[in-house]
Specification:
Elements lengths: L6 E3 L4 H9 L4 E3 L6 H10 L6 H17 L8 E11 L2 E3 L5 H11 L3 E12 L4 E13 L4 H9 L20 E5 L2 H5 L3 H10 L14
Parallel strand pairs: 1-2, 1-3
Antiparallel strand pairs: 3-4, 3-5, 5-6, 6-7
Helix pairs in contact: 4-5
């Protein structure tokens, strides 16, 4: 009988699952029940400034806490993440609609923005928590209208923070990256290691068993 992995990812994102799998982690997944817009608006209504980085960390924390409160999380480490793209001080999430993605790319072409990924790890057994915000500068090439139209038509950018993913078709449009590549994709293994250490869990305890 296979043991339940210690790590529980509060997400069903294919990109985040792929990162954890390719970097050797054993983990389960559970979708968080979080109203992202309501979380941000509630904080702003209380008079708290919520910039792009704060928004990413706020939502990553909310996702981890939502899953940590469920029975499936008992005795485990729960990891929540969220990504927000910042351009000229404005936060951009997933465009969802093609016309929105087209306008985003017209504004991003030839520019440099920052991709913020908030991470939050909860040790459900002890109640201890740790957070890490990883911010990476991303520079884009001048992208033609034809390239923008073709990229948006592929469907790839519609469900990606900032309307791009650096490990997919948009890699051809990224000219410079300063920071953590994996965090731009959606999750930083380095941040996970740091948080786990803060909570007293050695990295090796989260790795998948070697294949026979």
């Amino acid at each position: 009988m296979t043991a339940t992995p210690v790590l529980l990812l509060a997400s069903t994102s294919p990109s985040r699952r792929s990162i954890l799998t390719s970097t050797g982690f054993a983990f389960g997944t559970q979708a968080p029940d979080v109203d992202e817009r309501a979380e941000v608006e509630a904080r702003r209504a209380a008079g708290t400034f919520v910039g792009p980085g704060e928004e990413a960390q706020l939502l990553g924390t909310a996702k981890a806490r939502a899953v940590a409160a469920t029975p499936q999380a008992a005795g485990r480490l729960v990891l929540g993440c969220d990504s927000v793209f910042e351009l000229d001080g404005v936060a951009y999430g997933k465009p969802h609609e093609p016309h929105v993605a087209i306008e985003r790319w017209r504004g991003m072409s030839g520019r440099t923005g920052v991709l913020h990924t908030g991470h939050h790890l909860i040790d459900v057994s002890s109640g201890r928590e740790a957070s890490r915000l990883v911010s990476t500068s991303v520079g884009f090439a001048e992208v033609s209208e034809e390239e923008i139209a073709a990229y948006v038509a592929s469907g790839e950018p519609l469900e990606c923070a900032g309307a791009f993913t650096v490990d997919g078709l948009a890699a051809a449009f990224v000219t410079r990256l300063e920071g953590d590549f994996h965090a731009v994709v959606g999750l930083s293994p380095a941040a996970l290691r740091s948080m786990a250490a803060e909570l007293g869990t050695p990295l090796a305890a989260l790795w998948a068993a070697p294949s026979a």
